[in-house]
Amino acid sequence: MSEERSKISLRSGGKRKNRPTISSPRQISAPIPQDNGMPQPPQLPPGATMADEPRTMRPRPPPPGGKTSDLVKKRYSTRFGHMPTDFDPSSNPMPALPDFEKYMQAQVGPPPSRGGDAGGLGPAGREPPRVDIRTLRDPNFAPEQYVAEVLGEATEDEIRDYEDALKQLKARAAADLQQNVYQNRTQFIKISKEAEKLKGEMRTLRNLMSELKTNTTALRASSNSADSSGGLGPEFSMSKRDRRSSITDRTALWSAQMQTLYKTVEGSQKFLPNSQGRHVVQNAGPWVELDNATYKSRRSMQIFLLNDHLLIASRKKRKVDAPGADARGPMTKLVADRCWHLLDVEVVDMAGTGDSSNGRNKLADAIMVRGGGQNESFIYRTEKPEDPEKTTLMLNIRKTVEELRRNLQSERDATNKAKETINYFASRDPGLLQKTELLETLSDIKDMLIEVDGKQQNLRWVESQMDELDINIALQQIEPAVARIEMLKNLASGLKNNMIAQDFISFKVDERCARLATLVVRELMNSHNDQKKTKRNVTWLVRLGFEDRAREAYLEARSEVIQKRSRQCIFQGDLHLYIWEISFVYFTVIRNTVICFQSCFPPPMMSACVKWAKEEVDAFNVILARQLSSAEEGGEVWTECVNRAKEHASMLSDVGLDFRNLVGRNVGTSATVSGGAPVGLGLS
After folding, report:
1. Which helix (H) or strand (E) holds 534?
2. I want to staple 541 with a disulfide (CB 3.0 to 4.6 A). Which of 301, 414, 546, 573 is the partner?
3. CA distance 342 to 396
4. H-state helical runs in 26-109
5. What's residue 162's pLDDT?
6. Alpha-carbon span 283 to 311, nearest angstrom
7. Which helix (H) or strand (E) holds 357?
8. For residue 160, what is the DSSP state?
9. What's residue 33's pLDDT?
């Protein structure tokens, strides 16, 4: 084998020596015949095709070669004939590639179907223009330049297809925008409700923390002054039996205390008129008023602490020789001198502010009361040194002031809460401001619970239903809105034991019901020619309780149709033709109106339709009398016109109405007034 390979050479051989010589190019005028021994294809006549001839198998020429070609084939050939026994080509299939054309059609729209060939190319073999969403989203998008580049060479069909694709893209964007707006509104309403709920919880938590602080301060002060006494004196002594937790007994006790105070302190009722809840907290006993400059004693006083005021009474000698005076009474009496509200004054302990004499401060047992309307200051000192009444008075003043401020804050919070409630409901329903009685009860009904389908719901649930109803009305979803209004009306009618909540819900529902009825009435007047839509709109209005308004709107719309159609009839000299057109318009519209009214409205309302038809016939008689005023009554022209009108009036018998006797009545006499005087412009 090696010897044979050494003899064989690819560059030498007998065949290489006998290779043909390439000649210079030459001009030919006919196909060069192939006479190398291979069969030639048959010559076809002009106009014939290969499909017309029976197909024959063309013999394939044997490939040229020899030992060299056999050796090359044998060297570069490999046989794969033995496959593994466990080989399964379906166990690991090749993943399918995504269809890019379907993806682009889903994003932009189907490819244009008009114009171009079957392959989606234009007439000139180019691809038709497509909508590029990324280019349209570019903030630096130039419309004129984009249109010139994309549609510069487009045909009319391609431009129409491109316009359709843009319209589809616009419609899809508008639908997405509307859906986003609806979702954003729903989320905003939900977040507003959660914020309002959180605000109420924070307000409650703040009140609880304030009460906890007040109770802790009071307990600490009580523990520090456990040995102190807080009696009111012999006039205001209370036994354990009188100290009860009942509100009625406590109110009676406070009233008795105030009556005793009025009898004991002369002129006290002028400063402290009797009011609910006012009572005496402490009778601080005898005090001495000091001069502000010299701290010398001026007169003897007595201090009374009430739950909201501080009363200062001066001790004066009683005139025994006065007429009518009781000789057995005490030698001194108490006269009201000054009185301040506790929140208007400040009580300061004077201990440590004065000079000391004989090792003791002169103002150790003194207090200063400053403030009031004129911003004055007064100094009072206990008669007995180191009297515990001073400590008890200061402690009680602090406790009473703190309680007053807490009560005032609670009232302020309640007022603010009521204002917030009023503003909240009034901002949603401005018409609520005209309901004064309902506004006064808003703060009470905010946390009120009502029973809905066996569950307890507050008025926030009612507000959520009103929000849903507003959304239905705004989106003109009439059927869901009518169903929700019926549900809320039934809910309000079921609250017979809760008149406040019933009035509140009824007011809100009635306002939205009127708004929805206006929308349906407008739709009824626009589509009164369609019996199906008319019946649907009338059914909605009847369910809302506005059947009278539906009847008036429908008949008014039909009257406008009669006026519009009759004005389109123009008199051109032929009186017979004009009367025929007018009568045909009037009685045809009246007949169609009665037919539609019978199928859309309840039977008890049919009398209103008959009355309307009678009025329209009277209006036709006015027109007929005006047109026949120049014709002789009973003449040929007059009789023919009236007969034509009665002939058209006979079509009302199809709907159960017979107005033929009314047509033409008083036509001759209506042309003139009483006395036969003609009526016209310029005639008196």
Report:
1. helix 531-544
2. 546
3. 11
4. 67-75, 100-108
5. 87
6. 10
7. strand 356-357
8. H
9. 52
10-residue block means of pLDDT along the chain (684 residues)? 49 54 58 50 48 48 61 58 59 57 50 43 66 82 84 85 88 90 88 88 86 79 53 45 57 86 89 87 90 88 91 82 59 88 88 59 84 81 85 90 89 74 64 62 64 78 87 91 91 79 83 91 89 91 90 92 89 85 90 90 89 89 84 79 84 80 65 42 39
Contact 250, 263 (CB under 8 A): no
Write out the two tokens for 293.
């400059």
Q: What is the pLDDT of residue 320?
A: 60
Q: Which two tokens stand for residue 508?
A: 């809100």
| pTM score above 0.85 | no
**For residue 210, what are the CA distances in angstroms to 207, 220, 299, 399, 410?**
5, 15, 42, 14, 10
Output the pLDDT for position 224.
63
Q: What's the first-to-final CA gap in the chain, in angstroms?
A: 147
Question: In 3-state terms, what secondary structure has residue 672?
Answer: strand
Q: How big, in percent rounded to 5, are the helix, strand and coil portions of the chain?
A: 55, 10, 35
Structure tokens at 385: 């040194």
Residue with tokens 């000139």: 124
What was the pLDDT predicted at 66?
A: 64
409: three-class secondary structure by DSSP:
helix
**Residues 586 and 564 sit within 8 Å (Cβ to Cβ):** no
**How many whole angstroms separate alpha carbon 585 and alpha carbon 566?**
6
- Please check whether residue 566 is in contact with residue 586, taking contact to mean a CB–CB distance below 8 angstroms: yes
Q: Are 508 and 459 in contact (CB under 8 A)?
A: no
- DSSP letters for 426-447: HHH-GGGGG-HHHHHTHHHHTT
For 445-490, list the strands marked E by DSSP: 449-452, 455-458
Q: Write b or e for each residue in 511-546: b if 16 or more Cβ atoms lie within 10 A of its Cβ, otherwise e.
A: ebbeebbeebbebbeeebeeeeebebbbbbbbebeb
According to the model, what pLDDT value does residue 385 have?
A: 81
Instruction: Give the C-alpha separation, 164 to 172, whole Å.
Output: 12
Quick one: tokens of 7?
A: 């003899």
